[in-house]
Amino acid sequence: MAATNPSPIHRRGLMLVLSSPSGAGKTTIARGLLERDAGITMSVSVTTRQMRPGEVEGLDYYFIDQQRFDRMAETGDLLEHARVFGNCYGTPRVAVEDALGAGRDVLFAIDWQGAQQLAQNARDDLVSVFVLPPSVSELERRLRGRGQDSEEVIANRMAKASNEISHWPEYDYVIVNSDVDESIAAVEAILHAERLRRRRQIGLPEFVRSIQDTL
Ligand SMILES: Nc1ncnc2c1ncn2[C@@H]1O[C@H](COP(=O)(O)OP(=O)(O)OP(=O)(O)O)[C@@H](O)[C@H]1O
Ligand SMILES: Nc1nc2c(ncn2[C@@H]2O[C@H](COP(=O)(O)O)[C@@H](O)[C@H]2O)c(=O)[nH]1
């Protein structure tokens, strides 16, 4: 069988951000996408929040103390950071830059403040998706059903959901997470289409010219 030519077109990595009110399902959708798409890497955040039962260091988060968090923020080791529900969260810079440099896409499950900071620094590389719950009662049911937070924490998150949702117009795409599989498929479709954006295809003008030159 004849060997096929390697593609002359390379792709610029993109940053795919999922935001939502707490409990709407962005982490669930992110995990589903990671299982289906080998070309995307999850950004693992640092946080000062207490570890929940079942969470794994380095997989769900890097759990660090306030002093270390403040040092990372001061020295520019965080690509973005924010205080959310009384705890600090941030995206370690090096892991993201290494993945993008290797031509991989990076997935983030972060809040609107983090999405705004990424947009300020790298708008062209950012694709943002806002995830809405199908209803308020379902959002509360999911937060409670997760079985990991106290009533006080759940009440605080429900109280802040309206503010988080108010940022939906800042996002490129909005989905309503009713059925998990449909939501994962929707985000997968967004990712596939965004990968084909003209500006992300490095070498495309040269490739088109070479075709035109041989016509
Ligand atoms: N479409 C869905 N239908 C039913 N349950 C869902 C759906 N999506 C997610 N869930 C469930 O809702 C709960 C919250 O989901 P998840 O942890 O993914 O939310 P989140 O938006 O990442 O929350 P947080 O911002 O607090 O990290 C989980 O128990 C998850 O299994
Ligand atoms: N700006 C950032 N927000 C983040 C980051 N990692 C998570 N988050 C947001 O925090 C809330 C709460 O998360 P939980 O794990 O305590 O339920 C979540 O809704 C995310 O939006 C981050 O690195 N930067």
From TrEMBL:
One of its GO terms (molecular function) is GMP kinase activity. It catalyses: GMP + ATP = GDP + ADP. Its EC number is 2.7.4.8. The keyword Amino-acid biosynthesis does not apply. ATP binds at S20, P21, S22, G23, A24, G25, K26, T27. It holds the Pfam family Guanylate_kin. It comes from the Bacteria. Residues 13-192 form the Guanylate kinase-like domain. It is an enzyme of class 2 (transferase). It is found in: Cytoplasm. The keyword Transferase applies. Its main location: cytoplasm. SUPFAM superfamilies: P-loop containing nucleoside triphosphate hydrolases. Essential for recycling GMP and indirectly, cGMP. HAMAP family: Guanylate_kinase (MF_00328). This is Guanylate kinase. The lineage of its organism: Bacteria, Pseudomonadati, Pseudomonadota, Alphaproteobacteria, Rhodospirillales.
